[in-house]
Amino acid sequence: MTPYVYEFLYRGGDPDDAATSPAWHVIMRGLPGETWPGERVFNMQQAAEAGFDLPAVIGGINVAALAEVDRLNSILATLQGEDA
Length: 84
Description:
The protein is α+β, with helices and mostly antiparallel strands.
């Protein structure tokens, strides 16, 4: 299985304070028994070097979120059909 985003944390920077810049980290997981380690934490630089730059991470989150919306919409449609 392809590794997936387990957790994503974004910390914004204060636009009025140059000393605070945005940063993020991501925890990637794969299925047990796969070649990918069970869980791995990457900071911004490590993630980009491993092929998980910010657009890739956000893309993975979007795909998972939209799949969950589709799943919930399907459940809702089934429940609404039972009430009719």
